[in-house]
Amino acid sequence: MTTFADTTFTPPELIRNFCIIAHIDHGKSTLADRMLQLTGVVEARAMRAQYLDRMDIERERGITIKAQNVRLPWQVNGQDHVLHMIDTPGHVDFTYEVSRALEACEGAILLVDAAQGIEAQTLANLYLAMENDLTIIPVLNKIDLPAADPDKYAKEIAHIVGCEPDDVLRVSAKTGLGVEALLDEVVKLVPPPVGEADAPARAMIFDSVYDTYRGVVTYIRVVDGKITPRERIKMMSTGATHEILEVGIVSPEPKPSRGLGVGEVGYLITGVKDVRQSKVGDTVTSEKKGATTPLAGYREPRPMVYSGLYPVDGSDYPELREALEKLQLNDAALTFEPETSAALGFGFRCGFLGLLHLEITRDRLEREYGLDLISTAPNVVYRVVMEDGTEHVVTNPSDWPEGKRAEVYEPVTKCTIIAPSDYIGAIMELCQAKRGQLGGMDYLSEDRVELRYTMPLGEIIFDFFDSLKSRTRGYASLDYEESGEQDAELVKVDILLQGEAVDAFSAIVHKDHAYGYGTRMATKLRELIPRQQFEVPIQAAIGSRVIARETIRAIRKDVLAKCYGGDITRKRKLLEKQKEGKKRMKMVGRVEVPQEAFVAALSTEEPKGKK
């Protein structure tokens, strides 16, 4: 028999929907843990650190990837309230997850580390929240740390948010200090949700996950009307209709209920197995007498970085397709399409929001679905206009059109870098080397500065963040957003093994950086590819012009070992015979590139030595 979580709909005036905005490692998962404990939804014996981070990768790396929602009971002045908290990711690659969470809330807690101050990515998410007219509650965390300087950073936050430094709350999520007062402030400051209880049902899908046994679990925020089990619903963008099998709340485990009313956040299950039936951002309404106007959706996520994913074992291709389809439901920002490579066989061209997104996706595919994968070097989307006026959209270097090109356009981004003012020179030097143009500079406080640059996306995605961190001793933070495209002098560099191009190593780079890329790849491959019985030339070429070359020397058998003394002509005859054999072998021999060489050459790190 099903036990229901509650029997009546909560009045909207007693509901508060809020999310937590913070940078990686500023303590939002720890704050969420304290809230779960204080409100009593998790028993002390069941408590564990980072309770809402369900994935192993999240727990190992200490980052939040998926937004998680939870319903918390809280009492203020003897009145019971219901708080819906959504724990959001902090990394720039997952801004899309944050934008969806913000749509389902009326308030946001801006959480800042009292020892580090506000970071660029937090600032970007704060502006997103302000655009959505959310009530901002500024909070300084980790005030118990010896390095904390709450007064200094309270002034900085007050300057950005537009409040008084005394309005900034001070808490320690680790010890629980000030968390009760914060929950009271949420009830006091965050406005209750607004909606019409008697209107046709309208609910917004803000997340969905795939459950092996139950199919698609869709997370919704009800705006108007009510959603109850056993009624038939319609998805407004696709027109698909389903019967609701279960409606419930998350507290913090899923609990079935008799329905969800205005302003409530919960989940519904329709038993649908097809991942494309539950689109994030869609509006759910009743099939009969449903709403006619959908809720204002939010932007579709656009991939910023493309990379090829190939199974090491070609027979795993169907498994990879199935794994990507399932992962796409849990991650609405992932896109993929089939592609083939002469060197790597069958695989998929996948679109990601950034490098961390690529790394996490690959990690999840390997862990959760037991796949062994190779990913090609990441690249962005280029638009090539030929002299005859035809246009080509290039997401893969192998699609680079031959013939005379009139113009090549590359995507550009607006970058925000926040760092201590001591490092301004080093940051400017790095950005100029990456073809960046300074847009402006502001001092947030006496010793912290915000720099705004316009930079090509292709320069950022590879190793820009690592270089920025190393030049600023880890103090700088980066955020970027797309900002159109610009004309650029780009060329395709091919890597040739014995005169044959290996498509997996091709790259589209700026004309000035082509020689550097060519020499780097040629040197890397010389160290990684095992020596053959014949000499192998490795060349980097732009079109038919070779710009760099390395040679893998042949393995030579000592054919003179059996000669002891005797005439020199005998030795020369043996060496000439060996030379002829090598020449013949070179004509018919093929260079087999081992998988480890592909993996090592396509990784962004420098080779550690021969494999």
Q: Care to give the gist of this entry?
A:
The protein has 611 residues and is α+β, with helices and mostly antiparallel strands.
Counted up, domains total 5
Tell me the name of the CATH class of the largest domain: Alpha Beta
DSSP helical segment count: 14
CATH topology of the largest domain: Rossmann fold
**Biggest beta sheet summary:** 8 strands, antiparallel
Share in β-strands: 25-35%
Shape: globular
> By helix and strand content, what is the structural category?
alpha+beta
Q: Uncertain segments of ≥5 residues (pLDDT<50)?
A: 604-611
CATH architecture of the largest domain: 3-Layer(aba) Sandwich
Distance between the termini: 60 Å
CA-based gyration radius = 29 Å
Q: Give the strand tally.
A: 29
Percent helix: 25-40%
Mean pLDDT score, rounded? Answer: 76
Looking across the biggest beta sheet, what order are the strands in? Answer: 10-9-14-7-8-13-11-12
CATH-level-4 superfamily name of the largest domain: P-loop containing nucleotide triphosphate hydrolases
Family: Belongs to the TRAFAC class translation factor GTPase superfamily. Classic translation factor GTPase family. LepA subfamily.
Domain Tr-type G: 13-194
Protein name: Elongation factor 4
EC number: 3.6.5.n1
